[in-house]
Amino acid sequence: MGNPKGFIEIKRKEGGNRPIHERVLDYGEVEQTLNEDDRILQASRCMDCGIPFCQWGCPIMNNMPEWQHAIYKGDWKRASDLLHITNNFPEFTGRICPAPCEKACVLAINEEPVTIRENEAATAEKAFELGYIKPKPPKIRTGRSIAVVGSGPAGLACADLLNKAGHSVTLFEKDEAVGGLLRFGIPDFKLAKNVIDRRIDVLLAEGLIIKTNTDIGKDISGEELLKSFDVVCLAIGAMKPRDLSIEGRNLNGVHFAMDFLTQQNRFIQGIKFDDNKRITAENKHVLVIGGGDTGSDCVGTSTRQKAKSVTQIEILPKPSEKRTADNPWPYWANTLKTSSSHEEGCERFWSLATKRFLGEKGIVKQAEVVEIKWERDSAGKFVMKEIEGTTRLIETDLVLLSLGFLHPVPEGLVNELGLGLDQKGNILINKKSTTNRAKVFATGDSVSGASLVVRAIASGRKAAESINEYLKTI
Ligand SMILES: Cc1cc2nc3c(=O)[nH]c(=O)nc-3n(C[C@H](O)[C@H](O)[C@H](O)COP(=O)(O)OP(=O)(O)OC[C@H]3O[C@@H](n4cnc5c(N)ncnc54)[C@H](O)[C@@H]3O)c2cc1C
Ligand code: SF4
């Protein structure tokens, strides 16, 4: 612990966001960073608690007190080395993790927590800048071959660790570029794609083999892969979107959020779309259905595409501004989240259910919504009840369905390999990340359902550990 009085003397200071009037004109990252002196002061706020609850809150168990101390000492190499023991990609999580660690920070009981997430991004950036993150190929190759299918954070973390362990790892990806939702889901204004490319260059130089544009189950069968590799690990995400089966769903102008977001990310990468295929919010009244992070990303993207208006509605009640008694520290705080995209301009409504879409000449024009209340039934379960007389129409010519994801897409690889599924339709694994098929492991959102980047990294690391153990037994 560098400065024992740091948490008393220094107030939390965040890097803040670029001014709204400037940032909405481009897709560059919204968040700024502090200068080095301020960053060191922020790290000095860590109290080096006896029990670091922040570490407990972090799914990959980053060792916060140790690397805050290293930052305080200006020892960026040590800070980066400590961080990389538990996190393959601190430059991703440092930008987009919702930071459960900060909710669990002991300071957060009655003060503002340490800026752990920003300190993490700053450490990674400093380490790249000073040349501390360079390719370290394994000295010895084991002769074992592993196929990892899917290049999101789970697949990348798993492939990275196994490659570093000396196995020959091939990462297969059906899209034209690696990164999964990091690249094609999360907008550039939250995570610039050159940040992914920079890390991929390091992994390639370490000997990881990457094959893009290869849909396993279609271009190469799962069985073929099993014959060619000692182990196959599936990290295929949970891409089946939840739909809204109501009247008017098939009208033009009603789209899944992911179709809208992935297209914009590709557009920024220079890919052209025919006018009749392009989904754009320009000059439209946009209605985003779903109040989560994906919905918020649709809001920010619509604003940048120059929508006439953006409205976001959510079926659940508005969360409280502060923690409630049944949601105490150090647990994740279920409080109202206002993202940088919301700040850029958007009307938000809660406790609204969508009844139907109305259109003209096959194009959506309005959404009929009704206010609802949530009540407990006799079994204590929350049930939704419509409030009489509250039906109204929202004018819209672009509806983005952002209702979450159900489970991995079963058609193709999952069905071909006959993989067991859990009740929600996710790939069923045991504690060792093993599926019901010999030699087949699975990880990330494909086993947990849609989650977070940091949880996907944690899951990919666990799968790598299990695969390593398994390889010793065959
Ligand atoms: C719009 C959006 C915004 C988000 N924002 C955040 C955020 O800010 N912070 C956060 O922590 N989390 C966020 N998330 C969640 C996070 O992105 C995911 O939890 C995480 O990416 C899951 O990682 P994964 O590796 O399991 O799967 P994915 O990232 O989904 O990657 C799976 C990969 O597998 C590939 N694949 C699938 N099938 C095959 C096949 N048969 N052959 C070859 N390749 C295949 C896919 O093309 C994809 O590249 C967001 C999600 C979305 C949709
Ligand atoms: S990965 Fe997320 S939870 Fe872990 S230290 Fe970083 S910001 Fe916190």
Shape: globular
Kindly, what is the distance between the CA atoms of the first and last residues, rounded to a whole number of angstroms? 46 Å
Structural class: alpha/beta
Strand arrangement, largest sheet? 3-2-1-4-16
The helix content, as a percent range, equals 25-40%
Rg calculated over all Cα atoms: 23 Å
**What is the count of helical runs?**
19
Largest sheet: number of strands, sense, barrel closure: 5 strands, parallel
Low-pLDDT residue spans: none
Tally of DSSP β-strands? 16
Please indicate the percent range of residues in DSSP E strands (runs of 2 or more).
Answer: 15-25%
Bound compounds, each kind once, are: flavin-adenine dinucleotide, iron/sulfur cluster
Q: Quick check: average pLDDT?
A: 97
Please, could you describe this protein's structure?
There is one protein chain. The model has no long low-confidence stretch (mean pLDDT 97). The protein has helices at 6-9, 20-23, 36-43, 53-57, 64-72, 76-86, 90-96, 100-104, 116-129, 153-164, 181-184, 193-205, 222-228, 257-268, 293-304, 340-343, 413-417, 445-448, 453-473; strands at residues 145-149, 168-172, 209-211, 231-234, 240-241, 254-256, 285-289, 309-313, 347-349, 352-360, 363-376, 382-386, 392-395, 398-401, 405-407, 440-442. The strands form four sheets. Strands 3-2-1-4-16 form a five-stranded parallel sheet, sandwiched between helices. Strands 6-14-7-8-9 form a five-stranded parallel sheet. Helix 16 links the parallel strand 8 (309-313) and strand 9. Helix 14 (257-268) packs across helix 15. With 474 residues, it is of the alpha/beta class. It binds flavin-adenine dinucleotide (FAD) and iron/sulfur cluster. Flavin-adenine dinucleotide (FAD) binds next to helix 10, helix 11, helix 15, helix 18 and helix 19.
